[in-house]
Specification:
The protein is α/β, with parallel strands linked by helices. Helix content is 30%, strand content 18%. It is built from eight helices and ten strands. The strands form three sheets. A six-stranded parallel beta sheet has the order 2-1-4-5-9-10, sandwiched between helices. The protein has a two-stranded parallel ribbon with strand order 3-8. The protein has a two-stranded antiparallel ribbon with strand order 6-7. Helix 2 links the parallel strand 4 and strand 5. The longest helix is centred in the first third of the chain and has 19 residues, at 53-71.
Length: 251
Amino acid sequence: NNQSKNLLILIHGTGAHKKWWDPIAPQFIDDTNVIAVDLPGMGDSDFREKYSIKDFGSCIFSIIEKEKKDAQIENIYIVGHSLGGQVAAYLASEYKDLVTSLIMIDTFIRPPDYDPSEHEGGPLRKIKYYPDKKTILQRFRLMPTQECKNDWFLRYIAEYSVREVEDGWRWKFDDLMFNSLERLFGYKFSFKCPALFIYGANSLLMSGNILSNIKKMYSDIMEFEKVDEAAHHVPLDKPLEIVDIIKKTVL
């Protein structure tokens, strides 16, 4: 929509890619320009030596700067799922006048007193190759593991999660990312724009006091909304509900 002064940016989670938004993004094109990104090391983006949220944030920032120049964009709405929510909130905190409003979907936010040294990265993922496309697609799993009734959605994103290389078929994401990704430990988001935190009723965020910690830290600057019958991957479980919430919240 070239006339619109609005821009909606959709940011995927760890190991995912921009095509996760394909069934969702087209619902907004009457009201806004829409960009779904592949973060560095994921989707069709290039791999890097190491990965950090700050770096992801500056990638999104450069997209926004370009769009503001080329398309006279005035309003910027950012929606991020999981890791994407951290990137979105980091960006809105670092560039307070840039983001018009912000939606985080089922993002795990660590409390400021969290000690990362007690939770070092998992075992180093060794890159695996599969003999053919059918075999690798059968291995496709959501992380964290959950049921998802929308098989069509899973089949679709799986299809765009793989590529063929010399040694066989592999996942598109950089395996090293899982260990070199510097997350935002002890960073206190300080965005000033209207913000909404969406979470799945059956999400892992509901275990222990994760969600109540997030609410304690951020309920003064953020609204919260629960989506029933959704686990961590809310956009896959309840795509239409996510579309409705985004429409009524930002557009």
